[in-house]
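Continuing the series of single-chain predictions for the mutant panel. This is the parent chain; the variants come on the following pages.
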Amino acid sequence: MASHIVGLPRIGPKRELKFALESFWDGKSSAEELQNVAAGLRSCIWKQLADAGIKYIPSNTFSYYDQMLDTTAMLGAVPPRYGWKCSEVGLETYFSMARGNAHVPAMEMTKWFDTNYHYIVPELGPHIRFSYASHKAVDEFKEAKALGLDTVPVLIGPVSYLLLSKPARGTEQSFPPLSLLRYILPVYKEVVAELKAAGATWIQFDEPTLVWDLDANQLQAFAHAYSELESSLSGLNVLIETYFADLTAEAYKTLTSLKGVTGYGFDLIRGEKTLDLINNGFPSGKHLFAGVVDGRNIWANDLASSLCTLQALEGIVGKDKIIVSTSCSLLHTAVDIVNETELDKEVKSWLAFAAQKVVEVNALAKALSGHKDEAFFSTNAAAQASRKSSPKVTNEAVQKAAAALKGSDLRRATNVTARLDAQQKKLNLPILPTTTIGSFPQTIDVRRVRREFKDKKISEEDYVNAMKEEINKVVKLQEELDIDVLVHGEPERNDMVEYFGEQLSGFAFTSNGWVQSYGSRCVKPPIIYGDVSRPKPMTVFWSSLAQGMTKRPIKGMLTGPVTILNWSFVRNDQPRFKTCYQIALAIKDEVEDLEKAGITVIQIDEPALREGLPLRKAEQALYLGWAVHSFRITNCGVQDTTQVPFHFSTIWSGL
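Parent structure:
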């Protein structure tokens, strides 16, 4: 039985790509040195997959910055402001589009669906002229071929590329990029022709927008695109890959009716309803790439359960037509758990990073073909049982508190006018009070002191004194600027989620669990493995310290539950909203302690709320309904009238 991986992390196990990129950008290394690091990473990835027994190994999933930007380069869709001369898109132009330069700004960057990865948004207008301007896909296929490896070149599909684009500057915002479909297909034909000439036998088109709620015109665009490409694709096996959610019945029908397509890839982790569509009818003779290993999270696969799913699907599509795969690219997980030496051993046994997920995929493929590794499956079953029964996971008090929430808890008992009156009497602020959004820039000295305290090179007393000195500077500066509501600057904090997660129960943190956010930017998402509670106050000491330095109100600064949830690897053994409720209750406890300490204004930072993408709107609205209220149950001793005003911040953009 065959196995397949949608895509792999490209940053390297020790963030080799990040450091090579930043060295190149700083002028400390040459383009050749950067390219050598990249080639080494690609080679290691391909060999890792081959050694693990993966049959369908992807190529062209590596990127110096972003796969959508790679496609923009391939199509020659370079905005005019970068002065590109219509030759092969080189690194200078490529990185100018990604990062800007001394003369022009970068292209817009936004979230890749509902992940924490960001892509560079193509800028398209009616007068753009497409041309084949980057041969990266073919070059990397040949590179793998030279290593003795046959790979499946991966391209962002033409329809998804256009649907994920925006009108160029100076173009009417009503302009539909999808109207350019007929102009980009000739470039795709050229790429396909070169891949065929180089010896490719399979090609993968990623069309993730098929999981959107598409209208008839958008669905028809898929049919038109692959009908136009059919003759060019003749002689190739064609895989259309979807991920991140269910397909609608209409999208499923459109996809499985596309001409010239050999196989279809589905996310069967987030796309549970897609299973019903497959059960109700799958095209005869076609391949099903079954995404049963989660590419979005870091939990070990329940191999026994996945094997049952695969065996059921095998009865529908045929024994030789099912390929075991990941639900999406493993780009969204950390690289390799072997690099984690500090994690709790029991918690570590529940996890699988990208390298481990590759092994899981192959183990399932072998088991489906009758060559089950009993020892591997037994170890996996023991870890699953351990997680279900571990006291580290369950906190009965937390579960009871969350379960006790009633519908009335989501509604306010007083109207906004009464609350505003109470707040004004307490604070006596001007009609348009001034404040700042939160943290002040952290100096080299501040970071050094924090690092030395973490490494136990200085005492707690020395650390507190250093932070106190920095907070005092920040407070005095704001007073000099006549700011009405002050902040303490947050010199004691690292990451806005990590800082709180480190003080909440139910969280674990990795040493090397880096995940690419964009370009060279990598993050280490916390792992929420159990019920969440707040053992003790988290911010009261620092806020109270700052309040003692001024007569003006100091804001208590908290990260909200939606952001903590969405910027973490979340447990998958209970609904996400339950975990969010638990975090909200913990933050509510912190709010009440801040109030008792005399803090009269509290800011809740929820930048994740600006990520209201179609896949998550209903879920986020549910979270917000609870989170907003849960911070206002009893404040300043006045039931629900709350004399403590709340500043809800999305930080980087408006809701």
